[in-house]
Structure formats: structure tokens, C-alpha cells
Amino acid sequence: MKRNITILLLGILITPFGFSQTGRKVESFNEGWQFKKGPFSENELVFMQSWDRKWEDVKIPHTYNAKDMQVDHGKFYEGDAYYKKTFLVDSKLKDKRLFLKFEGVGQVADLYINGILVGNHKGGYSAFSFEITKAVKFGEENEFLLKVNNEARKDVIPANHNLFGVYGGIHRPVWLITTNQVNIDVTDYASNGVYISQELIDNKRANVSVKVKLSSNLKDIQELQLENKIYNQQGKLVANRREQISLSPQGVQTFTTSVTLNKPHLWQGRKDPYLYRVVTSVKNGGEILDEIVQPLGVRKVEVIAGKGVFLNNEKYPMYGVCRHQDWWGIGNALEKEHHDTDLDMIMEMGVTTVRLAHYQQSDYFYSKCDSLGLLVWAEVPFVNRVSGEEGANAKLQLKELIRQNFNHPSIYVWGLHNEVYKPHDYTSQLTKEMHDLAKSEDPGRYTVAVNGYGHMDHPVNLNSDIQGMNRYYGWYEGKMGDLEQWAKGLKANYPEYKIMLTEYGAGGNPNHQTEFIENTWQYWKPFYPETYQTKTHEVQWGIIKNNPNILSSYLWNMFDFCVPKWNNGGIEARNHKGLVTFDRAIKKDAFYWYKANWSEEPVLYIAERRMVDREMQTTNIKVYSNQGEPKVYLNGELLAQPITGTTDVHYIFESITLAKGENTIRAIIEKNGEIIEDSIVWNFTSEKTKDFKMKESTKVHSGF
After folding, report:
1. Active site residues
2. Distance between the two ends of the chain, CA-based, in angstroms?
3. Which of 11, 105, 266, 300 has its CA 20 to 30 A from that of 316?
4. What residues are paired with 443 via a beta bridge?
């Protein structure tokens, strides 16, 4: 019930791009755009002659790679495209200031208004904003033109499309923001201009600091009032601080206010994601010149080596998934309902923490995580390759990530990079600089960097607060059970290190099924049986659960996603490691495996329901139940008691014999006067033989 109240209140507070604003006007700028995709002639005359032809009407969010990037590996458009829009700027706004805010453009953008360059941005997933007051003509039609380009570049992260595709286009909403001449700064790396820090003191008091950046276009120094009010979730004012300030027109000015909350209601993750709201106002007498409303979740997150992650001094269960945002047929031009669908499934599975990989994601998604109580790992797309030219852009995108998302209580760690290596000295130094930048911007949160190798003494390691490692035993290297030896080795050799297992898993195509699975696979094969993926997660979650020195784990991945240069697993341009298919239509068996292990909702699920045509007459039945031992019937006959698998929700009915033809399997649990049941049908015609061989890879996985 508390979660529903939280979401309801936030629904009232949240505007299309953040929290409600007073003293300013925020309008959707998503309608009325026209679009033209290249390639374009380099001949200036030919280019100009074709300029007015073949424009397509589009609505933002939009991407020009939703189809070509997802269906034919290696064949998708990289290059220039244009978006244009004509807009009448009301003459009544002459005394106002105007800004355009883009939430995400893939991945280099140049904005022109009436043919004049207004600004440039490099980075496909972070927001950016430009003041356009002097660029527009009031009382007239103005032409807005955005040139975009999604080509891989050495000076913009990510430097290639190898791990995921950078969809071209304006893939997140655009907003026209109108303010008074005095405002809470709109162009501070597209942040909200308000930064809320809090320190929890022994659960009885919280010191809250509010830093506000103000901007003035007025000639004279202004004598104003800056007010910060804190309201609880029921709308009651619980703290208020008002002070007189002098605001100069020379540069953006910073003002910091501190207040104390007594006996604060804590943000307790999924159990109780309680949110206050902080209302920051700049006033001239009784007139509100500008106002911003931001969330405040009072919480303390500690990562303690060898013990785990603690939220408000209590150990927190870190049931983690990674999330790529793109959808089949849509790319990353998502609407709110797509984010909501993803979050519904994440919450259903019992997830408590999400790694938003490998790039900045929608502010709407972060805000929903605040209200749902998910701990979030947010990161920048410094991934897969080092070019030697990306340093400035990597640090710029990290600063944007931190400033734009500073006030989200769900975020507990900033991700610096994933699987980047040579030249080692360069990468190590850049990581140190990014860590230092993150700590300067936000001393209250952790940093993490991720390596694809499994040994701690790799040259780029140990330059952040937390060391992440991606381990794909049984898929890219070794056997799935080798994770146990790796975990125990880290515990023995690095007991005081903060270590997280940041990716693990295996591919699984629901259209591919076999009973002939072992403990290793050859990922370059076209055959990706779902049954192998399921076994991998059964084995490896059992290992993770029993090794608390792995402070958190993040399975790869919650959803299948597009990898435009891959062709494996029977579907082009697809990474199949998701627990849910790319179109979100099928929840694979591994989804229910984790739901049974993690969720408090009752789960009774018979696995291998798509392995309908059985290959062996004597086989096993696997059932996931978090409600105790189930009774299982095969063709109406009660089976003998099962053995327990890798966790206490894992029931295996061994060596059962199928009848020829159709076989009905029914699982039943009676609990508290209620009956829970599940049933599936298998067919058996004749014994099959294994027609493929698997050889264990002895190579060390470093990343793909």
C-alpha cells in the first residue's frame, strides 16, 4: 500500500521531464517535426537542390535505426540526419528567457535556429539544454534545425557499436522551457540547478543541504529571497528555511542552505520507498520568480567488504539485473509505457537493484526507481574499446550523468567504465581522473569500474571504490560451476576488497530446446537452447547466494537487446542473454527461477515448458516453488518426493518415465487453505541421440 501511495503522489508531482515547476513554463516540443535521413551528397550544389524534397513527418521520440539496426547484422545506417520544425514564438515572451532541453539525441547534435548555430552536444544518452532567447525572433515563425549523427567516433563514447547499437535520432523528449529573467539555472549541464545532499545521523536526525544555482539577466544586482521547504509524503510542511540574497548578473551564482530533519521517515528500498519533496523558490517579495520541486529520500548506503550492502544500517538483499532500454521495432525511442512495462517485470521478479547498462537512461526511469525503491547503478557508455581520444568526452558525460541525476535517492553508485583495457596505463590514469571527478561532484556516492577478466591484479583495476568483474563461466570460458572457485579465491586473497559480480549468464533462444546439455557451451554456435541458459542460472545463483563476499550480483540481462554486428543464436543482431525476449512477449524459464528465489509473491512453476518434444523417455522434472515442496503428478500418478537442487526453491523429480504420446504434468501446493497449481504437456515419440559436441573453452573472457 505504501508503494502505491508513493507512486500516486509522485504522479501528481512529476512533470514530463522531472518534477513540477512554478514560475516557469515547460511545454512539450515533440510535435511538428520533419525528418530527413542521409546519406547526403558532398557536392554542395546537389545537396542544396535536394534539400526541400523528401521530408517525413515524425513525432519525437524518434530513431532512424529501429528497423535496419535490428534485422540485418552489420548493415545499418551510420551518418547524418536532420530534424526541422517551424514554430511561432509569441511576441508576449519578449521579456522572458527561452531554453530548449533535449533529453537524448544519438549521438552528436548541432542545433541551428534560423540558420545560426546555437550549440553542439556530443553524447547519445545524456540530456543537454541551450538558451535560445537571443536566437529566436519574437512574434515570428522560427525554423529549428537539428543535425544529428550516430557514427562511431574515437572522441565520443562509446567508440563503436560492438556491444550495443547507438540508435540515431532524437530518441527522448524535447522541452521548451520559459522562465523569468531571474531563474534557477537551466543550462548547468542540463541539470535542475538544485542539488540536495543529506546525511543520516543515527536514524534520528538528517542534515539536509540544498545547493541552488541562480542566473540573472537583469542589469542590476537583485535583492531577493531564496526559500527551501521540505514536505513529507502526506503534504505536510516539515522544514522551512528562508534567507535574503543578493544576486549579481555576472555569472551563475551558487547559494547553499542547510536544514535538519528530526526523526526522518527513511527511504527503505522496496520495503518503504518514502519520499519527501523539496520545494526551492526564488522570490521578489510575494512574487515567485522561479521554483523547482525535487525528491528527497533520506537514506544511507554502505558497501562493506566481506559483508554486503547496507541500507540505513541494515543488510540489504542485492538481487540485481542489468537493463538495456531498447525494444524490438522501436529501438530506444521509448514512451513512458515502455519503461513502465519493463519496470513491472523487474518488480515482479523480485529485483532490488538495477544496473542501467551501459549508458545514461531516461530521467523518467530514474524517477520511477525512486518511487519503487530500487537501488540503481548509473553509468556512462565508456565501454568495449579504448581509442586514446575519448578522455574529455568520458569526463564530460560523467559530469552530466552526476549533475542531471544528483537528487535521485535510488542511485547509490556511479559507473565509470566497462571492459576497457589497452593501452593499460592510459586507461588506468583516465579511470583515476574519472573517479576523482565523481568524488568532487558527489562525495556521498560510490564509484565502480568493471573488468571482463577474473583476476584482481589486472593493470586497470582498483581505481574506483568498488571493483566489478564480469564472469561468464560455462559460456565464454570454462564450466558454469567454475564460478565457485573464482568466488572462493577472491574471498581468500582479497577479503577486504569491495567486489561485485557485475555480469553473468548465458544466451537462451526460446525457439531452441534440448535435453542434451552439459556444463559448457560454445557461444559461436547458432544453437542457443533455453534449457542451457536455465541451468546456468540455476547453478550460478546457487553459488552466488552462498558466497557473501560477492557484495552484489547483476545478471546479464533482464531483456534481450540489439547488437547490430552480431549474428548468433539463430537471430541476427541479437543478444539472447535476456530473461525476457526482445519484444517482451516471453518470460523465459530463468525469469521464473529468479522470481521463485527473490520474490515474496507465491511462485509455483514447472520448468522446460517449451521443451515440449522430449528427447529422452527417462528424464527429470524441475519445479520452482517458494511455497514449499509441491506434489507433482505425471499423467495422474503422484511422483515420489523430489531432491532439492541448488537452492531451497528448486525441486527435482529424478528419473521419471514418460509414456509414449502426450504426457500431462501437474504441480500442486496447498497452503493456508488455498491451492496453487501449474501444469504443462510434454510429448514423447522415440529416443533421440545427441548430434553435437561441446568443448570447454580455455580462453579467459575479457569482454565482447
Report:
1. 419
2. 43
3. 11
4. none
